[in-house]
Amino acid sequence: MPRRGGLTGRAAVLGLVVCALVLSLAYPARQYLAQRGAIARLAQQKAVAEDRVAALNAQAQRLDDPAYVRAEARRRLQYVMPGDTVYVVITPDRQPAQAPKPAGVPTPAPDAGRPWYARLWGTVQTADQSP
């Protein structure tokens, strides 16, 4: 008896079982890979945070040293020790550096030199001239 070249019942069932296995394993495999990626990202964030903590601990140790604090005060704030002589050298092509204004300090009004009652009377006159 000659064999037919078509799909047998066993092959169809086997193909159906393989498809069911592939489909049932696809979602867990996708979840596994997504979780592995999340773990890798979190491990990288942890390493960055540990580096930052180490740097901050080193800075805290430096700030515990009075000599370092004194040197930073001299460098950043231009503090001098009692008895030191300070010289400021201004070159002709460069203007002296202006001290930065602290944040939150309002700039004085143009008439800040006038007494308070003169400024008050000025606001009354300005309000009187309004239409």
Report, as a whole number of angstroms, the end-to-end distance.
114 Å
Largest sheet: none
Please report the total strand number as a whole number: 0
The 3D shape can be described as elongated
Low-confidence stretches: none
> Number of DSSP helices?
3
Based on CA atoms alone, the radius of gyration comes out at 39 Å
Q: Helicity level, as a percent range?
A: 55-70%
Mean pLDDT: 84
Describe this structure in words.
The chain is built from three helices and no strands. With 131 residues, the protein is mainly α. The N and C termini lie far apart (114 Å). 0% of the residues are buried. The mean pLDDT is 84.
Keywords:
single chain; 131 residues; mainly alpha; elongated
What topology does this entry show?
Layout: H1 9-63, H2 66-77, H3 116-129
Summary of the model, kept short:
The chain is mainly alpha-helical. It has helices at residues 9-63, 66-77, 116-129.
